[in-house]
Amino acid sequence: xxxxxxxxxxxxxxxxxxxxxxxxxxxxxxxxxxxxxxxxxxxxxxxxxxxxxxxxxxxxxxxxxxxxxxxxxxxxxxxxxxxxxxxxxxxxxxxxxxxxxxxxxxxxxxxxxxxxxxxxxxxxxxxxxxxxxxxxxxxxxxxxxxxxxxxxxxxxxxxxxxxxxxxxxxxxxxxxxxxxxxxxxxxxxxxxxxxxxxxxxxxxxxxxxxxxxxxxxxxxxxxxxxxxxxxxxxxxxxxxxxxxxxxxxxxxxxxxxxxxxxxxxxxxxxxxxxxxxxxxxxxxxxxxxxxxxxxxxxxxxxxxxxxxxxx
Amino acid sequence: xxxxxxxxxxxxxxxxxxxxxxxxxxxxxxxxxxxxxxxxxxxxxxxxxxxxxxxxxxxxxxxxxxxxxxxxxxxxxxxxxxxxxxxxxxxxxxxxxxxxxxxxxxxxxxxxxxxxxxxxxxxxxxxxxxxxxxxxxxxxxxxxxxxxxxxxxxxxxxxxxxxxxxxxxxxxxxxxxxxxxxxxxxxxxxxxxxxxxxxxxxxxxxxxxxxxxxxxxxxxxxxxxxxxxxxxxxxxxxxxxxxxxxxxxxxxxxxxxxxxxxxxxxxxxxxxxxxxxxxxxxxxxxxxxxxxxxxxxxxxxxxxxxxxxxx
Lengths: 311, 311
Prior knowledge:
2 copies of one chain form a homodimer.
Chain A: H1 3-13, E1 22-23, H2 26-32, E2 35-40, H3 50-59, H4 63-68, E3 70-73, H5 77-88, E4 93-98, H6 103-111, E5 115-119, H7 123-137, E6 140-141, H8 148-164, E7 170-174, H9 179-191, E8 196-202, H10 207-214, H11 239-245, E9 246-252, H12 254-268, H13 274-285, E10 294-299
Parallel strand pairs in A: 2-10, 3-4, 3-6, 4-5, 7-8, 7-10, 8-9
Antiparallel strand pairs in A: 1-2
Helix pairs in contact in A: 1-8, 3-5, 3-8, 5-6, 8-9, 9-11, 12-13
């Protein structure tokens, strides 16, 4: 993996993604005493950066493999991303989802013509069901975050951000399954001589923070956070990248996430999901450490029930 | 007034405004069977297009007049716009506002260092108080919508939109006091050979619709609409422009405004105020008439209490 690979990945996914805009706010700059550049992946197709990784993962498959389809387990944005990317490429997508997943998430997948296969609501049932689908259909399993091609695809967001603002000192990214921050870290390493990557993580799902401390992958006993996109765990493909390239992970409380989310809605006038507020909450909490710096923030997505907000 | 004047106005206000982005959504295009371009004035400084007109109105004054300040009556976006524009130009702004205006609106004006002068909550008290302030301070009165320089300033939004998308067939604008739609109509007349302007207006505050029917300015008996920015009345400066250049005004019901607002939040991932949803609601309601056309929509602002939504 090097700069050239990431450039090729970007060329390959370009027809399937938006080059999302970067927004700024004087009020927010004044508030944190730094220059902040928000990379708006909430404006990405299907509403989240996951479209990048999903598109790249399918494009990495041979035509023969594509003809048999792809399968993943997700009830979140990756389910929608894989369904939409597959639809656009004429590939069949099987989405393994817990029976009790919210109806609105099932409907979103159906809109993009993903085929939902229900399973019990636990990690073992989910993986068994995905294995079953693989066996029966010959579909290729694509993990939502622990997959090299997914990681590279997600890295194209930070790559675009650094193309637009090469002088960035830091990029803040949320940390969930680890795909986005690993891709972001690779992009920063390849496309900047000095830009460092910082993770924002909910205190209530701080496996990445603890993993960086201990040097091995730690797990969450529970994931009681409003940032539902960040309840997932690190994997063996993305953790080594995070360990090597990510400078720091900052943990934030639930109220800090909600406050940061509301601030972005009110000041930036954009709809973001709770997970997307986490890196900004991390910056707000530690703004003294980043005074007068140029800071990019990956706004990961905007898929939220606007009729049911935490404020 | 001609094309050159509007170009000069734009040059003059440029340092004080953002050139706002234009966003699109495939889902919305599919839904209305047309290509829709949203000019995002919710991303404008202080969160609404009003910044354009306010900046131009102050810039049109002599240095002597500027030294004595400006005064307006508004409890909405124009109060904030005039305060911020005046602050940036080192001019004093007096804002006449009803005693019972929401605290959040008063706070916003104070943030921008506008001086609030309270009055009773009726049009006569408001105008008397503004006249008082003029007499006592020598400040120049600037009407929020019925003022040529305000109208020209507001027209720069549509001018930018037509610079970016010269092939537009229609621009939809909300109709409140009439400043925005009059400016939009002038910009379309000067910068396009074929682009027509359509107004969206709440049925519950349909003075412009009825005025176009009767050919003279009609008034609203009541203004019971969620689109609080559109409760104001037409004036003698903007109505003749509207009469001459606006092709049609479409009225929408309250539920249609709320539905359109929610759709834009969910699909476009942007925070818009109810007034901004009105032109899109008008398009949705009459989409058969605009099939396969290229349509610009002025998204007028994003100042809304995100903790108190109608959905």
